[in-house]
Request: fold
Amino acid sequence: MSTLPPISNSGLLRWAWRQLTSMKTALILLFLLALASIPGSLLPQRGIDPIKVRAYITENPTWGPILDRLGFFDGYSSPWFSAVYLLLFVSLIGCVLPRVGVHYRAMRSAPPPAPRMLQRMAGTRSLEVTGSTDEVLLTAQASLRAARWRVVTGPQEDPSWVAAEKGYLRETGNLIFHLSLLVVLVSIAVGGLFGWKGNVIVREGSGFSNTLTQYDAWGGGRFVNAENLAPFSFTLDKFTADFERGTVQRGAPRAFEAEVSFRPDPSAAVQHALIEVNEPLVIDGAKVFLVGHGYAPRIKVTDKTGAVVFDDAVPFLPQDGNFTSTGVVKIPDSTPALGIQGLFLPTAALDAVRGPHSIFPSPDDPALFMSAWKGDLGLDSGTPQSVYRLVTDKMEQIGLEQLKPGESWTLPDGSGTVRFEGYERWASFQIAADPGKEFALFAAAAAILGLMMSLFIRRRRVWVKVLERDGVTVVQLAGIMRTSTFEDDDIGVLAEDLDLVEHALAAAGLVRAEAPPEEES
Amino acid sequence: MNPESLAQLSNMAIYSSMLTLAMAMVAFAASFANGQRRSALVVAQESTMSAGGTAVLTKQKSKPTEEPGRRAANIGLSLTWLAFILLLAGVVLRGIWAGRAPWGNMYEFSITAALGILGVYLFMNLRVDLRWLGLFIVIPVLLTLGMAVTVLYTEAAQLVPALKSYWLVIHVLAAIICSGAFTLAAATAGLSLIRDRAERKLPPGTSPTGPLSSRIPDAERLRTITNRVLAFAFPLWTFAVVAGAIWAENAWGRYWGWDPKETWAFITWVVYAAYLHARSTAGWRKNKASWIALAGWVVFLINYFGVNFLASSLHSYAGVSS
Reply:
């Protein structure tokens, strides 16, 4: 920065404001923004994968907590990231808002009169003309006006020139672009405050209604009334998944389809819809996206008296691309309380290195590997537990077994029987409402439009001046670019502008000959 | 025609294109080595234009006389056109073979990106004479294709569900054209730095004599070309990012999620935005701006290769590991 800060307080403030809104500062803030975006793409992020973050901190006991404290695992909502983009936007406002006023006045003010020495300007040309000054200037004016130039004529006392300007939309586009970025930012904030999203796993044949308690995970903005969500509901009638069976990319997903029946509200008629990966279902301002799927083995457990203590399909979570899935069953109602850790394999394989795993995501040869436990499930301790994890601290392992569908396992200690009845599929949905997204899209479209205007439109001025030279009437044409940088093909644009006037004069039969360039006196 | 022969035809077209490009590279290199200097007339014309002073507005009618090396450059250009057509055929055949837009994995992205670089160069060349740039375009294209056929090659397969959308065509097409423009701008920005260094060592008004810097336009002209190309590419890149956001909203339920690919696309955008700002900041519009243009290209490459190979991203459907 070239100037030193002044001593007085108000002067210091004004100095700080000028620095902040200068182009150089904007440049530096842009670099900082790029730099501040990098860590979030290299380190795991809570917003994307909280489990990975926890694993990272555990694996790096020294640096993990420090990075955590510095906000590196919430990189895009950390104080340093927010500081950079907020400063950038303040700088943007400070730079752009005054320019709106300046541009408004510029658009209303007349182009300045012709300079005295037109022949010194780039691309100037002179023509000998036959008609009167009025005729020439009126023809020139008409041609410029027809091409949508802003035109002014000389005053009464010196009516010998016409000045015209074009390309005001360059600055307009520039301002639209920058202001649109502000609207995008505001739209993101609106989405954050008024939007919500939740995730839920729904088994085939089961239903879901849009209330907070039904979600597996839910998050909403500060101004969302979570008690009063749109009252829609749906049932997952059928879920189908296809996988590549050829040798190339074997096992890669090819199609997921969830057939659902839904009601926009409890009194409405049932409608049917098909939800696919790129085809969300829109109900009442919320969108239902198909984001995942998996298997839910149906398990039936009887205790030693023969009473059924558990009979349900339990969603297991896929661990790899071939849907090796893990899950647990907790049966607090049997005596003693039982717990089962399970591994569901849609296409089972067993080898010495990897142990039991699945080799294809479709259920070609399903199997369930189990480890049964008895003792205290820890459900009464008051500590919240994951439904996908068995806390075995106070439990004792009874045995291990693998079952095919329809097979049973009598627990070795005689405490009951476990039967693997079969499996169901489940689909996981993300349900989201973002009231800011339409604004964001609109603003983004405006930003692109404004950007193109500001990059492709060229602001320039043209003068037409009539003068007498050695008894001959001569018209001089000249122009300048009014962009900050003059580039070599700009001269072509100016030449076309001057051609426009010249051709109009020639068409009106006013041009006699090309005049020799005037000698500078 | 059976699918196997389609696949073979596609591969053959791409190998032929590479061979043609290799010959084009030799031709362009020969035109450099042939001791030709840019004719005094062309140099004078360009320098007066970029100075913004008095210049002749009528089109230059007198063509410079046949220079040594010009023929080699013309051969190089013709071969580049041939390579472009062969590569286009290879990409189209690949699409027909796969029965979809040929943008399902890194191999397909790369051959199309190579096509994009050639396409932007040849299109620009129709408007401005860019034969001197040929060598610096053909080399990265050959590298891209070489990497595609050796490291990245995958048999065509169906798309994963997330890619089954018409946004694939819109989003990827815009990004690929940008890859061509960014590469071209990086080449001209890099050359402008070399030329600028040579110019600064000399008294004003004289032309450099170095083997490279004497055969490329003056630095200001190179900067102008860089600026023009990036002024075209920046709105298109903005569009590509926005189109990606619309698609992401439709497929994943949010339009922006700081996925590594999104993040680096954003960083690319920010760096090129900085370039455009630098171009209208006093003291930044020359070499600093050129360095920023080069940095933008590096960031773009990180996004293209790095994210697919290193980061765990929703965009990792490159088909590389399989």
